[in-house]
Amino acid sequence: MSVGLVSSKNSFAKKLSSYLQEVDYRVVKTDKERDDIFKLRYKCYLKEGAITPNAAERFSDDYDNMENCWIFGIYIDERLVSSIRFHVISPDDRKGPASDVFPDVVLPMLEQGKTVVDPTRLVVDHDASRDYPELHFATMRVACMATEYFGADFCLATVRQEHQAFYRRIFNFKRVCEPRPYPTLLKPISLLAGDMDTIRNEVASRYPLFVSSFTERRMLFEQVNMPGPLTRFYEDVVNA
Fold it and tell me: Cα dihedral angle (99, 167, 142, 203), rounded to 10 degrees?
């Protein structure tokens, strides 16, 4: 590897790490926060041609209300700039997007006693991405922290063909099946998976941004008085 390429990678990693000084990760706790995220999802997915328009201009599904679902908003200067959700799927709690759409792949993992983190609905505000072009990295960091906190054996990625290169290049994920129809989306989705024992140290070495402390993970995931599924006042509108 050339010196120039090494320098470029080091500079990029340093720039990513500097994001942590500006980024505020928040677990969604209120209906207002959820509604803001559903609006952002709608705007992003519609722009990509992944969904059809709806009058409510919101995008949500039943998976958002599962007890093993975590929804995060990512903020910079109090502005919602991106979002991600994930499900912790385990032998004790088997429901989630990936286990429903790819049961032949995910359920055998659970039968072996494995736990997987299933990130979905990663969206980045288009205008914010011009100011912060590495927001996808900062957003995906939530899933990295979740895999460590919940002791996940695998981290998954259910993504369209055009997004697979990101997960293969950055996380060394492997595609484990061909594209399939996916609930609420117009385009087929493939399943990629990363074995945490195999990729953890390599990813941390190349991209220190994804490293987190035990204290930071506890602050995010050991929330006091975390609610269960919140009220569904918006559902009739979203699904209209």
Answer: 120
The predicted-structure confidence for 97-142, as pLDDT tens digits, reads as follows: 999 999 999 999 999 999 999 999 999 999 999 888 888 999 999 9
CB 74 within 8 A of CB 93: no
The strands making up 174-175's β-sheet, listed across from edge to edge, are: 23-27, 69-76, 79-89, 116-124, 154-159, 190-195, 174-175
Q: For 194, phi and psi rounded to 5 degrees?
A: -120, 125
Structural fold of domain 3-221+232-236? Aminopeptidase (3.40.630)
What are the angstrom distances between the C-alpha of 96 and each of 26, 37, 74, 100, 158?
A: 21, 19, 22, 6, 12
Distance CA 113, CA 104 (A): 15
Output the pTM of the full model: 0.85
